[in-house]
Design goal:
Elements (H helix, E strand, L loop, with lengths): L1 E2 L27 H7 L3 E6 L3 H4 L1 H10 L2 E4 L5 H4 L5 E2 L2 H12 L3 E8 L8 H4 L5 H15 L6 E6 L16 H6 L3 H12 L4 E6 L7 H19 L6 E4 L2 E3 L8 H12 L4 E10 L7 H20 L4 E6 L9 H4 L21 H11 L7
Parallel strand pairs: 1-4, 2-3, 2-11, 3-5, 5-6, 6-7, 7-8, 8-10, 9-10, 10-11
This protein binds ligand G3I.
Ligand G3I binds next to loops.
Amino acid sequence: MADISRRSLLVGNLTAPLARRTLPEETEPGLREYAARTGLLYGAAAAWPALRDDEHYAQSFARECNILVPENVLKMGLVHPEPDAYRFEPPDFMADFCQRHDMRMRGHTLVWHQQIWPWLKTHVNAQNAQKHLEQHIHTVAGRYRGRMHSWDVVNEAIHLPDGREDGLRITPFLELLGPGYIELAFRAAREADPNAKLTYNDYGLDYDTPQQEAKRQAVLRLLRRLKERDVPVHAFGMQAHLDWSEFRHFKPETLQRFFREIASLGLEIYITELDVSDRDLPDDVAERDEAIAGVYETYLKAALGEPAVKAVLTWGLTDRYTWLAGRRKRASGTPVRVLPLDREYRRKPAWRAIRDALRSAPARTA
Ligand code: G3I
């Protein structure tokens, strides 16, 4: 099978020119240290090729994180762009990086309806879909067997607006294989990597609104169904893409109740993609940073009160590389300030908010 790693496919966010000659000096330890003290993991999504090409970005990961997740390069269409060709160079680099820096790694994601194989429409049909999906999972998860802390096996499978009674999103795999595609994916992932914690990951579950409550209930029903059928699912991933302007709908007790129910199914919980959009905040940097930090702190203090929560990952580490810069642009055009480090890798109030939440979290056992 061809490995087209070296072809010049551009993935990941573009690497901006380096603005600093050295990484800012810090007297305090990194977030990884605060997390470790209470038995937690802290990490972030890493962009490609920035992790390879931007030395300060890489150093910031080494300093702050004890877990890393590739932001894009393990997605179906990127890692498996042709039926017989995989592109493993970027995720291999990241796996080696994690090993060198004593970090864990999460896999994201084996099955998702976005960034799907570009060849799906021309090559996949109801007769061969199972074979293709199993082959993909065996090859990708199998390559990192024993090296992954966890895998997002299925991502975002619930979508109530699609109108199905079971709440499932109508995706190519649902249409080709029926609802059983989820179970099939988890079983294939278990065969490929028996040690990784197999995770169901989803978004839009954070607020105390009727829509999000309905989605929480649908996620719980899905997880219960999987557990009843002895499907190897070990964890739930709470994406937690937050927005300052929606945060008035957040109620700690609603989040905690949801997490309790998930934990009662015997599942671990990871906060997998935390970030906080500042789109509707004023330009003033100090004011904006404090408001964003407040959201991080309130959310994490509520989340970390649940002992089943074992890991916190932000969806990016520095404002230099974040999907929110493109997808949640500020009206004034000022750069977004949404992650723990600023564009020059300096720690912001959001960093201190995460530190404080990690520091005050009850100690985890195992
Ligand atoms: O690589 C191409 C590049 O060649 C091209 O020039 C450029 C022009 O648009 O696009 C580049 O690909 C982009 C890719 O990010 C890499 O930057 C895709 O268009 C773009 O759609 C893709 O967006 C990613 C998005 O998932 C869709 O896969 C974001 O970076 C990534 O942050 C986002 O992450 C998702 C999680 O996987 C699941 N949960 C929600 C989260 C945020 O949307």
